[in-house]
């Protein structure tokens, strides 16, 4: 009787959760539909709302729950007080005394062979695996699991083999913090406070590089998530460490071969996806009857065609078991195209921004004055008045449209921008004062800047050259900048700020497709520059003393470790004024006119690559 009532109770709870999920999904959809309708139709939209489509189901669920609540005496249910960080409502526990590792070995008979086999297993090595083996002693209550574990635990060979030994009684009820504290105490360590992070850090410290033996006696609760959390610190001991658990058998052992056969069929359905296998495994480990496993095998989700769904059916099953809040986060990812590579931090920021990733942002977008993160990887039109979002912290891309070079001024007050930003279409900026107004110099939190002028092939004239020179000069970044890329630049000279006194913290620089510049800036004066790459700069014929700078006090390129020249089709000569004391990697590729001449003294060089050099040999 009690089992049937419990099953009905859990079934009703599941029904409640499913209904709440449907309501949570339905409400915003209806809201969006209502907002999209013209005002004249509001009276017609109002009428259907008087009939709640969920009303009858809610009444049925409440009726069932009221009935089941009256059955609590049948189940002997009671409210329990808070234990650790959990609240439990459970059946009355039997009075069970905690166990200890002490045992009277003289009263135990018939276990010698089993004992010897177990000791042999415990003394064996773990091989190359970092995972500590967990050995289960499974059986019904009263079968002698704990006594057998005591017999092994107290054997002299075990005492001599392990540096640390511990016996912990778990019982039917436990929380992760409480059990972690009990394990710490069993290793003679203090276990103060309730901070799980600190407790597990202390436990990990104790076990590191120690060969330990732990017995967890009388485990009832098989909650996978809890046990994964408990066992986190235990993979830092030395090879040979072992853990024994004693636990009660949930179902008859004779049923396991049948489950194995069903499990193999389910495994074939997973399509070799590790995530799908793990997700389904976590689901099945809580179910022990043949009927429950067959329900999973025969579910309709396996038969959904690719046309009907866009995710693996096993993951769909896992999705349906997620809490409502996590379902929203998971569903949000559907706005990205197939094959899109996620970055954890960026996705979290998008969740925080509550979904401003749209192809065409609304006209009143600028009213989101508290918005801090905006991801626009597929937007080619920057929202109007984006400059009003003065609290914005992340803006990875900014596009300057043709005929709208003045848009660059929208960056003026975005001085809280952090990380990196790609500014595309700078060739469309006509007036250098717009570049000055962009105020890059005051964006002290930016660490990485990519400036792309133009990727279109167009006829060059003097006005374009002069415009590019003036605009780039006006786009002086903050001195805190660490990484800089300049590409498709049509000017004939590099800016004056591209030197050590203006960019003292720069560690990486790339000059790409700056085709009509004939002289390189004094990059040797950048004190912390570690990586330098120059490519497709066909205006360069000679690299001489201007490259190193004329400061006699500073050693040129004193921090440079990687130097790459690629596709310099007109480069003929490299004049060496100074050596490169820390250079580890030098690469010269497809510079057909360069004559054979390399630095003579490169004390730190580890890698040299030279190819496609016709005049070099």
CATH architecture of the largest domain: 3-Layer(aba) Sandwich
Query: How would a textbook summarize the main sheet?
Result: 9 strands, parallel
Broad shape: extended
Helix/strand/pairing category: alpha/beta
**Low-confidence sequence ranges:** 35-51, 80-95, 304-311
Strand line-up across the major sheet = 7-8-9-10-11-12-14-16-17
Any idea of the CATH topology of the largest domain? Rossmann fold
Nearest-integer average pLDDT: 77
How much of the sequence lies in strands comes to: 5-15%
The CATH superfamily of the largest domain turns out to be: P-loop containing nucleotide triphosphate hydrolases
Number of helical elements: 18
Level of helix content? Answer: 25-40%
CATH class of the largest domain: Alpha Beta
Number of strands: 17
How far the N terminus sits from the C terminus, by CA atoms, comes to 93 Å
| Rg, Å, rounded | 35 Å
How many separate structural domains? 5
